Predict the structure.
Amino acid sequence: MDHLEELRKRLFFALIGILSLSITLFVMKDWVFNRLIFAPRNPDFITFRAWCAMGRFTGAGDRLCVTEVNYELINTTMLGNFSAHILVSAIGGFIGFIAYLNSLPAPEQPRTPSNGQEPPKTGTGSVAKEPTQKKPGYKFYDMLPDSEVVPPQVDEYTPGPGQTDFDYLVQTGSFRTKADAEWQRAQIAFQGLRAYVRQIDMDSGSTWFRVNVGPFTSRSQMNSAVDKLVSINIEPLVRKVAKDKSGNN
């Protein structure tokens, strides 16, 4: 928060400085325009005097001297003079404030030793700090070769017969037309899955065509099929169905 407060102070100081210089230049607009901006209209302008002196030095006489400058200013917009005074004052205030900042001396920074350590404190109230000792750390690359972990032998789990009395059936969609169902079945076949279309006649008299994949006897097979279906933007519905004792789907 300290740096934000310092930034606010500097921005406020810059705003006040630019505004003060702009108001000063606006009040002195006659001097700004006559002495600075429109200074070349005077025959005694420094460039005209240099050309005149060069002509006299080379023997050309007063041929290079400018004795009169004829010009006329015309405003093409309403309040053109006032707008020009405001713009010139704002630009002059900004440039003047930048020049003022560049003239300020750079702040001195505290010197630090080249080795990066803080200088020792002196005085009655200072307490010398004892050098901290580095605590021993664990070096795993030295300890691991000397240690050996033997995992216990665990037999792979295989469900025995008769433990589950259901299979997993994955329904991928339900359509009003058989053509749409066959199109999805062909799309699933490209994923290496076997799908079939089943016609369902509702009590209301409507007919639906469901696309099913499976059945699967294990959850791992079902999850693998679901992953393939999700990869082609199909959100399946998994149902548990009774095992087909006869071996037919």
